[in-house]
Amino acid sequence: MHPPELPAGCHFHHIGYATESVEREATLFSSLGCRAEGDTFSDPTQGIRGLFMAGAGPRIELLENLPGASTLTPFLERGTRMYHLAYTVPDLAAAMAWAGTQRARVAVPPVAAVAFGGRCIAFIVFRHGLMLEFIEQEHGA
């Protein structure tokens, strides 16, 4: 028996990559053919600074802790760099409800995100440790 798929209309957006230095990792990903997609951004609510990079492979979101924040510290201490998969969703509440049917727990409830122009995001974690970020789609998208 296969688990139910993500709700209709969900689309892969990026892989979240934890780092101690966005600039250092941007250099590495540049050597792999990726280019910055916009400017770096800071999100004090989430305690992170980030940069999206895209190229021949999937879009990568490089993320580092803001000074005094520890959002990414648990991942960095475990040596986990690629720590979440992100999907745009047409209905954030429906995506969260779907996650509940999969016995996933909410790691970060819906919150407005600087990286997405104030659209809401949420993070869920499955029992085996996979973390997903749901990104509210733009209206009309």
Explain what this protein looks like in three dimensions.
18% of the residues lie in helices and 38% in strands. Strands 1, 2, 3, 4, 5, 6, 7, 8 and 9 form a nine-stranded mixed sheet that branches. With 141 residues, the protein is an alpha+beta fold. The radius of gyration is 15 Å and the shape is globular. The protein contains three helices and nine strands.
Estimate the helix proportion, in percent.
10-25%
- For the secondary structure, the number of strands is 9
The mean pLDDT is: 94
Q: Spans of 5+ residues with little confidence (pLDDT < 50)?
A: none
- From the alpha-carbon coordinates, what is the Rg to the nearest angstrom? 15 Å
Number of H/I helices? 3
What is the H-and-E element order? EHEEEEHEHEEE
Task: Based on the model shown, name its key terms.
alpha+beta; 3 helices; about 140 residues
Summary of the model, kept short:
The chain contains 3 helices and 9 strands, in the order βαββββαβαβββ. The protein is an alpha+beta fold.
List the helices and strands and how they pair.
Elements (H helix, E strand, L loop, with lengths): L10 E8 L3 H10 L3 E2 L4 E3 L4 E7 L5 E6 L7 H6 L3 E8 L2 H10 L3 E8 L7 E6 L5 E6 L5
Parallel strand pairs: 1-5, 6-9
Antiparallel strand pairs: 1-6, 2-4, 3-4, 4-5, 7-8, 8-9
